[in-house]
Amino acid sequence: MATASYLTCTSKMFLFGARHVLRTSSMQLCRNYSDSSKATVGFVGLGNMGAHMARNILKNGHPLVVYDISSESCNALKEAGATIGASPAEVASQANKIVTMLPSSPHVKAVYSGQNGIYSTLQKGTLLMDSSTIDPSVSKEVAAQADELGAFFVDSPVSGGVNAARDGLLTFMVGGKDDAFAMAKVYLDMMGKNVIHCGAIGTGQAAKICNNMLLAISMIGTSETMNLGMRLGLDPKMLASILNVSSGRCWSSEIYNPVPGVKEGVPSSNDYKGGFGTALMTKDLGLAQNAAIDTKSPTPLGSISLQLYRIMCNSGFAEKDFSSAFKFLQELEN
Ligand code: NAD
100 C-alpha to center of ligand 1: Å? Predict the structure, then answer.
């Protein structure tokens, strides 16, 4: 209760202040290496992250059957050598190793247990890896259903962003039983460089939510810092190069700088297109705040960050990458 009113108070404080991705060659690779003696893998959710992750499974020679509600996304994977399934149910009827990479908890529930969902045609012994960032309690619910159906389930959310997804350099935070983790690691290793067993079902999501709360806070801090430095007359590239060899250095300043032109190949240098949407970051901060209330953990900066990203969503930034926090601040000052 005390935490809740504290959060409300900090939110009000903030609101007051706030007023003022070698495509052709990789397609070739996928086709050349496809090996039908390897297990067919199913992949549902071919968005900014999932499309790259699915391609990395193809590159490892596994036949791949994919599904996304966007036919454009499915066709792009078909060109790379995958087969398209008509629904999650059809994917599950053709593959007994399945990765899902969906926006949020309701999408995951629908894909697993909805009409034409994975559970309607699930083969016994299937390995299910859900890499979406969702509420840990939903992971537990979906895992319990898998258990009843004789399947193995891990929650395996990721950190690293779209470039890491493309380059197979993601970090996977995995929750699940030891045997399921050992089976999943074989496939997650194809898409990431760190595959970490966090504990029982739901602990992968717990680790991910904590990481993203810190990321959201550091991105706002980096955006504020870069904006202030520029108004003080500093060249943004020069300021970033100083931060990145100094104590202010963080992932948001070094790898994913929010100021256009400071770093090539990141969303800020592409009008904040692609990347990790502000709406998705807002969802993750909401998950973090729910967890903070449940566990009575004070998270004042997490709460303020949630308010900021909510305002961004309501100001036309929902579909932009979350590093557009910098642009949002610039527009505020105008
Ligand atoms: P995205 O919105 O780009 O992709 C989601 C995909 O799921 C879309 O292609 C959409 O069409 C598809 N989809 C939605 N409902 C579906 C359904 N019922 N059946 C089949 N497909 C469906 O999202 P993203 O950026 O790829 O992120 C996916 C997940 O990974 C999210 O939970 C996000 O929080 C997390 N994540 C994203 C990043 C990032 O940098 N983008 C980084 C780490 C984690």
Answer: 9
